[in-house]
Amino acid sequence: MPPKFRLPPNITPETYWQVEDVDEYTEYKVFMSELKNVCWVTVDSIVWSTVNILILGVFLLLLPVWPIVEFTMNKTNRTGLSTLTAGLPAIYKNYGDFLSTNWPNIIAKLTTRDTDSQPEFDHILAEFHLHLTALVYEREDIIRQVIDLWDPDHDIGLSHHRFGYDGCVVNVVYSVKNNFIVMSFKGTSILNLAEWLTDFTMQKSHTKNGLLPGSVHTGFFSALRFSTRSDVEPAEHIDIPPIPEEHPGGIGIWMEPREEAIVRHVAGFAKEGSSGEMLMEVKFHYILDLFQGKHLPHLWITGHSLGAATASIFTSVLLWKRSLLGSNGGAQGLKLDSVFRLHGTFTFGGPRVGDRDWKEAIDKVLTEDEYRPKHQPKYQFWRIINANDIVSALPPTPFGGSLEEKTATSDTPGKRKASAITLNDFHHLGKPILLGYRGRPFKTTERTTKDFFSNLVAEVLATPRILFTRGRFGDKIAALVTVATLGFSGLLRDHILSEYVENLQRSEERMSLLPL
Question: What residues does each domain of the chain span?
Fold first, then answer.
């Protein structure tokens, strides 16, 4: 394969950036540029260190009173605390009525084998993933009731399996009969102080062992418990059999027997930061055993809030395996292209996750066909946010566009490009879907200040209609709070899953799909 970069005819390898004399005096143009960068990095470090100190102080103040809050909530709600709304069971029931007549359509969308078309945003698929995202928060008995409600005669063969640990819980809803799997990552529980601390950790970290490019949010990555230390093994001690030419490769060949993987996973808990990859290996073994005899089960991923962040990182790990560096990196058991059809990810209310380097590298793998195996569909990644959801604006990146450092590129000699140096250089992954308030049309562009204030005004103006028409008492209280706070209470309310259900179902485009 020829190299991607060739020297111009008038340059030889010997003369390419050859240094003949060393300048002993200051080059003030270079010095001032470096001084400017150091100045901005110092300011940025002071700002975000101050923010982290304030966050730490808040959590230290909450620590002594939080057990009292939890005890009180437990006493007032003996059957368990729903992290959503009191009307959630009705939401499940209403969606069950929708599923009763739409299952064939949804299954066809989940199991399509089209590998050529560019996927468009699908309201029906988004709504399906949204309800599965809500389900992961619930108690086990509620999940079973909902599964029975949605598949009363077991015609669909719907089942579920939930696993994980504090900070990262995954509910896998699947149908062996119809050959599909949806992995739902749980978001932040209202009373879980450890998960709130994860959310508010304003730091980013490099991943180890080539697991991902760039840097990602420290708290979100640590929630997955993937490796935080470098694994080093001598290459000569690794005995790898050749790949059969007729086989596409992947974990279908390289994964160890499940029993050995389980032993490695249990042992991994004794080693710092090495259990996350092993847990996923064990669970994918388990899922593949359930689907024995089925060809390439169709895999989808979803999550809300913290779950949207962990789902985004997990998706980026799977996609990064399609690159040369990623395929030789850590978590070899997560090469899934040979055993699953990887379709897409739907996230709801997700915060910013990784730096510019991470985003640009994953975007390249996500969008360019040369990285996609021929038998795989074009991967779709939809990032759905309510217009006034404050969590989707976190972590804040006020300096992201202004702080730059000069770094030489490898493709053009002497040319320099800009990259953010702020500690809070965080970005989203996926195509944005911006939901307007209660029936307003959605947009496929990033949220702007105009969008924010437009929907803020729409919420305030809707208050009289909500107060003086028949409806839920809780909605009337929320409307009064909206007026009292000049609409700013919607910044938090718009993050609740029930608000996503309302806005998605009542969007103009979604309504147009329903029969008259």
Answer: 29-81, 87-230+249-405+417-450
Domain made up of 87-230+249-405+417-450: CATH architecture: 3-Layer(aba) Sandwich (3.40)
Spatial CB neighbours of 34, under 8 Å, sequence gap ≥ 6: none
Place of tokens 């004794």: 270
Q: Is there a contact between 278 and 264 (Cβ–Cβ < 8 Å)?
A: yes
Give the tokens for residue 400: 């992201």
Name the residue among 122, 199, 91 with its Cα closest to residue 433: 122
Residue whose structure tokens are 């990602």: 216
What is the Cα–Cα distance from 85 to 94, expressed in whole angstroms?
A: 15
pTM of this prediction exceeds 0.70:
yes
Helix (H, G, I), strand (E, B) or coil at 434: strand
Consecutive 10-residue runs of the chain (516 residues): their mean pLDDT? 60 72 77 81 82 89 87 60 49 88 93 86 93 91 91 92 87 93 90 81 80 88 80 53 48 46 48 67 87 86 94 94 82 82 94 90 91 91 89 73 43 43 78 82 76 75 74 72 72 83 76 56
Residue position matching structure tokens 């995954």: 170
DSSP 8-state code for residue 242? P
